[in-house]
């Protein structure tokens, strides 16, 4: 069992569609991972990183209801197992297969849960999951901004996408726990804040600051405030759909992942429009807000910055984010990990994947020739400096993570059995409580 701080990176696997579904923005293809996947895993190890946010492309693996193509996943995950790299498996990253369509499809939650269970059955040694990445951003960019997938821009479409995405995440967690009862879910979600520019902007800013919590409120079964309840009901969510999210008994399996970039804070204008504000509060303040709301252990699951003309811009941002992580920890928030995202440079994120320009974004630990960037060297040193210090001198939780090489050992099997019995006991007590309440 490993109890160290979770220093991580990720291999960018976004794959939304644009141009009314005609173009798939497959970052694994654009960034060369299908060709260089073994080299990429070498780079992870060269950095001294043991945790990798990673997942197979949903759109090309999930071929139909009950039909899968595991050929690439089998190669990649066998190699991760051999290397004893611990994956945090990202099953849905902004896109779905063409045959499902988009996030307006009411069958998506059921179908995705079946895929999650099939994955867990095929790779039973995997313990850490992010079933659906950045649920709020996925719904917002697809159905409120009109950028991806369904490319709609109404509150009705946003609420529809959101309820389907979060339900898919919840059902996937349940399905995975049936196979791997000691699974841990690190829910990577964008941590946002909206600043009112003037008094006239206070009301729209308050509304946006409530909406930013909707995905996690539903995911963790926290009742929304009255304004947000009316918003959901006015835009297509039924009472039964709302009540589904309560009493699922899943929060105890979760670590809250908070993603933070310079673009996560916004200035709200009097007319309700927003412009980028840049970093104002920063990761420490905003993550503390999220922790105060959900009272869960947290992990910094994404950040990056372009390497600019001076060559040290990303290095300085890494230092700043790490200083924020330490401040969060020192203020008493149980923080278990940190992630620079991603391993290599990305392509076309300067337009949020809305345009297929093939433009390289220099924000990886390595460039696309797999040559290390200054921020990669800095992160490697940071990990070496802090790896042994944090577990002994922090309030970080001891997360009961089973390494791939340990998955067949007796104690690991006993941990799963104990988790299975505990889940059955909790479910029975909740069923009894619900019967009494009725």
Automatic annotation (TrEMBL):
Q: Per the record's keyword annotation, is Nucleus included, yes or no?
A: no
Keyword annotations of the record = Hydrolase
GO annotation (BP), single: carbohydrate metabolic process
Q: What is this protein called?
A: Family 1 glycosylhydrolase
Sorted alphabetically, which PANTHER family does this protein's record hold?
A: ALPHA-L-IDURONIDASE, BETA-XYLOSIDASE-LIKE PROTEIN-RELATED
Pfam families the UniProt entry points to: Glyco_hydro_1 (PF00232)
- InterPro entries attached here? GH (IPR017853), Glyco_hydro_1 (IPR001360), Glycosyl_Hydrolase_39 (IPR051923)
- One Gene Ontology term of the molecular function aspect: hydrolase activity, hydrolyzing O-glycosyl compounds
């Amino acid at each position: 069992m490993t109890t160290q701080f979770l220093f991580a990176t990720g291999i960018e696997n976004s794959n939304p569609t644009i141009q009314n579904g005609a173009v798939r923005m497959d970052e694994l293809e654009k960034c060369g991972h299908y060709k260089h996947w073994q080299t990429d895993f070498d780079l992870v190890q060269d950095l001294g990183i043991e945790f990798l946010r990673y997942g197979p492309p949903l759109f090309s693996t999930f071929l139909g209801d009950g039909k899968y193509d595991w050929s690439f996943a089998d190669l990649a995950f066998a190699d991760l197992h051999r290397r004893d790299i611990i994956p945090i498996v990202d099953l849905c990253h902004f896109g779905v297969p063409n045959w499902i369509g988009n996030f307006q499809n009411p069958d998506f939650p059921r179908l995705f849960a079946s895929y999650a269970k099939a994955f867990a059955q095929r790779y039973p040694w995997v313990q850490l999951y992010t079933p659906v990445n950045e649920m709020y951003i996925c719904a917002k960019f697809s159905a409120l901004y009109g950028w991806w997938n369904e490319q709609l821009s109404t509150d009705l479409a946003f609420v529809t996408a959101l309820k389907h995405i979060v339900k898919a995440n919840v059902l996937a967690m349940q399905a995975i726990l049936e196979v791997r009862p000691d699974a841990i879910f690190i829910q990577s979600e964008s941590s946002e804040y909206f600043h009112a520019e003037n008094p006239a902007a206070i009301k729209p800013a308050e509304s946006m600051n409530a909406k930013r919590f909707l995905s996690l409120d539903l995911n963790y079964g926290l009742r929304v405030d009255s304004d947000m309840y009316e918003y959901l009901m006015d835009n297509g969510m039924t009472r039964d759909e709302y009540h589904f999210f309560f009493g699922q008994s899943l929060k105890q399996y979760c670590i809250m992942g908070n993603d933070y970039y310079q673009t996560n804070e916004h200035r709200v204008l009097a007319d309700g429009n927003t412009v980028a504000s840049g970093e104002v509060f920063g990761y420490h303040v905003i993550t503390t807000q999220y922790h105060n709301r959900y009272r869960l252990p947290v992990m910094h699951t994404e950040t990056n910055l372009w390497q600019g003309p001076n060559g040290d811009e990303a290095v300085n941002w890494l230092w700043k984010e790490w200083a924020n992580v330490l401040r969060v920890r020192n203020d008493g928030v149980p923080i278990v990990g940190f992630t620079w995202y991603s391993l290599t440079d990305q392509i076309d994120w300067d337009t949020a994947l809305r345009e297929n320009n093939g433009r390289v974004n220099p924000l990886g630990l390595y460039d696309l020739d797999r040559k290390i960037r200054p921020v990669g060297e800095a992160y490697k040193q940071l990990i070496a400096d802090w790896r042994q210090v944090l577990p002994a001198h922090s309030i970080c939780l001891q997360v009961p993570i089973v390494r791939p090489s340990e998955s067949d050992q007796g104690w690991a099997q006993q941990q799963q059995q104990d988790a299975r019995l505990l889940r059955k006991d909790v479910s029975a007590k909740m069923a009894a409580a619900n019967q009494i309440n009725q």
